[in-house]
Model the fold of this input.
Amino acid sequence: MQPAVPIVGLTGGMGAGKSTALEALARLGAAVLSTDAVVHELLASAQVRDAVVDRFGEEVAPGGVVDRAAVAAKTFADDADRAWLEGLLWPLVGKRAGAWIREVRGRTPPPRAAVIEVPLLFESGLTDGYDVTIAIVSDEHVRSKRAAGRGHVLPDERSSRQFSQEEKARRATFVVRNDGTREDLERELSSVLDKLAP
Done:
């Protein structure tokens, strides 16, 4: 019987380098899934697009394509709208992640781990399905610079309902700093994967 594949939840604040870490983990032999990518796919589906348009109006889906920035602007401004959108998307994301985990567990040879990137992992309270969690943390100055490079401003995490980096780190099984090079990050993550080996 092949060894069980550890299920890992990966999180971190904006600009900490979650996506870079996910790419590194894939190179290191883990199977990876981004819930952001799943949300992109769901928003492109007719079912979710129609529900979003019914709630927020045609202006959030010009030409029949959901404008994520327009939806974000609506939901960040109103707790009821945000709760509605989370209620729509999270069960669908969970279903997709569950199916992906079942598929990964059947792979031969098995990957070193099955890693799911979830930006609001601890905030959503959806940590039960994970064997371990990893928080990617980075110096505030470095995070601001990375966010600016993508045209974003680092949000005030208290007002955006995100836990602080310190709180994510406190709740995580493993904390990985990402202030150096990609090679440094990959080395740190490789060491974490080694610890998960049965």
Remarks:
- The longest helix spans residues 79-105.
- The two ends are 13 Å apart (CA to CA).
- Residues 7-193 form a domain with the Rossmann fold fold (CATH 3.40.50.300).
